[in-house]
C-alpha cells in the first residue's frame, strides 16, 4: 500500500451507511484494508471475531459495489458490516514491465 488506508465514520449497517475506504489503489489493498478495519474495531481475527461469510452486493442502478461481512464476535453475537468497494473493485495492481521485455516479444 502506498499510503495507510483511512476509513469513514459511517456505521456500516447499510449500503447507505457503508464504510468508505480511501488510499487504496486496487482490490488486494482494499480487501486487506477491510480486514485491518475489522481487526482494529473488534480485535484480532479468530480471537475477537470470526468470519462467517463475505458477500458482494451490487447496486446496478447507481453502479456501486459493496462487501458485506457477517462476523461472529467473541461473545457469540453476529454482526453485519458493509464496506463500499466501488473505488477499488476489479482493479489489479500495476505491474512494472522491464525495459528489455520487448526482446522476448519480438
- Order of strands, widest sheet: 1-2-5-4-3
Rg, alpha carbons: 17 Å
Apparent shape = globular
Q: Note the gap between the termini.
A: 34 Å
Largest sheet: 5 strands, mixed
Query: How many strand segments?
Result: 5
Helicity range of the residues?
A: 10-25%
Tally of individual domains: 1
Strand content: 25-35%
Q: So how many helices?
A: 2
Can you describe this structure?
The protein has a 5-stranded mixed beta sheet with strand order 1-2-5-4-3, covered by helices on one side. The protein has 106 residues and is an alpha+beta fold. It has one domain. The radius of gyration is 17 Å and the shape is globular. The mean pLDDT is 92.
Main attributes of the structure:
globular; 106 residues; alpha+beta; single chain
Which helices and strands, and how do they pair?
Blueprint lengths: L5 E2 L11 E4 L4 H16 L6 E11 L4 E10 L4 E7 L17 H4 L1
In summary, what is this structure?
The chain is α+β, with helices and mostly antiparallel strands and 106 residues long.
Amino acid at each position: 500500500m502506498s499510503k495507510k488506508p483511512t476509513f469513514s465514520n459511517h456505521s456500516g449497517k447499510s449500503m447507505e451507511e457503508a464504510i468508505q475506504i480511501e488510499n487504496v489503489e486496487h482490490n488486494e489493498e482494499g480487501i486487506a484494508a477491510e480486514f485491518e478495519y475489522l481487526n482494529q474495531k473488534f480485535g484480532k481475527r479468530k480471537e475477537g471475531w470470526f468470519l462467517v461469510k463475505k458477500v458482494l452486493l451490487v447496486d446496478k442502478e447507481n453502479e456501486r459495489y459493496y462487501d458485506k461481512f457477517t462476523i461472529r464476535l467473541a461473545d457469540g453475537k453476529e454482526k453485519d458490516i458493509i464496506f463500499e468497494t466501488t473505488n477499488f473493485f476489479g482493479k489489479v495492481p500495476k505491474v512494472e514491465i522491464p525495459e528489455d521485455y520487448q526482446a522476448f516479444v519480438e
